[in-house]
Design brief:
399 residues; alpha/beta; 17 helices
Length: 399
């Protein structure tokens, strides 16, 4: 299997990336005598914007493209040579993946990558930078990157991954070649789950439907018990909430990761304290010892980042729960409209049909709007439990 084998349901995008890798291979030997304009006129470009809906495999496509660029095998992107294996494993010295478990990607972080982008590749053919979730870059961060996109190093390739072209500034997207991914077909993801994880076809189809064709989530629903429990508990609470008391209790459970099988707020605080102790130990200091003035800013910044990671985890969990709720009401609309499409939550069909019979289309649309608004408000400074209580009260179906 080559490196593009797991980029499922993206035949057109894969063909374009393979053509670009072939063009890069052809011009590489003569690149010393080629101008940047000649490079841009070929199938290859120094900057790429890989877009597509969540779960379509943007980051995987970028990694596969990077592997094809660095490949030393007879077939570009062979998946067997040491370079391909190193890129796909995330340890190739000339391929840098910029991702974040914080809320945003900082300007200082990108500034460091920009500086190193002008260095020649060490062992590979190209120096590649993959920025996952490019929409998490603030305007000032994007402006730091702009110079490197306008005037890149001679053997440097930038790949920005995001959901839509509009997620990045016009000055950036006008200088990038766009490759748009589509939502993979059900059968393509089912085949991947069966081949990669040994799932039965029926299990795979249920997971794909529940994940709404999100490849990463579908794989989690097959391999991760916690992900399965998160979905089932969210929908169980949705169909059981009758009043304020029920909503408050459900919200407490849904926003407390410990009750969902994850780390609680107390556990997060313990983890933060452990990280701080490890940083102090690395500096030769004990917990509670006075930190030298020269290191205080560094210690404070690291502590802030740890808290931001905890915030990001909680926001991602709540966003997934709200998405599950929206998918439930999507199914209700399918029943009300008599649409001949499969239900996302077929295991909750009984409750879906009851809700369809007892409510009007307008009331269901209002519930979907309320949940969508809650997802939007999640990124603002709002108490997670209050947000979830409000969402559950507006979306409740039980009387």
């Amino acid at each position: 299997m080559n490196v593009f084998s797991d980029v499922v349901g993206q035949e057109e995008a894969v063909r374009e990336l393979q053509r670009a890798a072939q063009a890069a291979h052809e011009v590489r030997s003569a690149f010393a005598d080629s101008s940047q304009s000649e490079m841009a006129s070929a199938a290859m470009s120094h900057a790429w914007l890989i877009t597509g809906p969540p779960g379509s495999g943007r980051s995987l496509a970028a990694r596969a493209f990077a592997a094809a660029l660095e490949c030393t095998g007879e077939e570009l992107g062979c998946g067997q040579c040491s370079s391909c294996r190193a890129v796909m494993a995330g340890n190739h010295p000339d391929v840098t993946v910029v991702s974040t478990d914080l809320v945003t990607i900082s300007a200082d972080e990108v500034r460091g990558y920009v500086a190193s982008s002008y260095q020649a590749p060490g062992s590979g053919h190209w120096r590649v930078f993959i920025i996952e979730d490019a929409d998490r870059m603030l305007t000032r961060t994007t402006n730091v990157l702009l110079k490197a996109i306008e005037e890149p190093g001679p053997r440097t390739v930038w790949m920005l991954c995001t959901a839509a072209v509009a997620d990045v500034l016009p000055t950036i997207r006008s200088r990038c070649r766009n490759v748009n991914l589509v939502t993979p077909s059900e059968q393509a993801i089912v085949d991947l789950l069966v081949r990669r994880h040994g799932a039965s076809e029926q299990e795979a189809r249920v997971a794909v439907a529940a994940a709404q064709h999100h490849i990463g989530l579908a794989q989690a629903l097959i391999t991760d018990k916690t992900a399965v429990e998160l979905r089932s508990r969210t929908l169980d609470f949705l169909v059981q909430v009758r009043g304020v008391g029920d909503a408050a209790l459900a919200a407490q459970v849904l926003v407390d990761p410990q009750l969902m099988g994850g780390a609680s707020k107390a556990a997060d605080e313990e983890s933060i304290a452990q990280e701080e102790a490890e940083r102090l130990a690395a500096l030769g200091l004990e917990v509670g010892a006075k930190v030298p003035v020269a290191l205080r800013a560094q210690m404070k910044s690291a502590g802030v980042d740890a808290k931001r990671r905890a915030t990001r985890r909680l926001q991602d969990t709540i966003d997934r729960e709200l998405t599950y709720m929206i998918s439930f009401f999507r199914d209700v609309l399918v029943c009300q409209m008599g649409a001949e499409v499969a239900l996302v939550n077929s295991d909750y069909e009984k409750y879906i049909r009851q809700c369809a019979e007892q409510n009007s289309v307008i009331s269901i649309l209002r519930r979907i709007d309320a949940l969508a608004e809650a997802r939007t408000r999640l990124t603002s400074n709002v108490a997670p439990q209050l947000l979830m209580e409000s969402a559950l009260m507006q979306a409740r179906i039980a009387q």
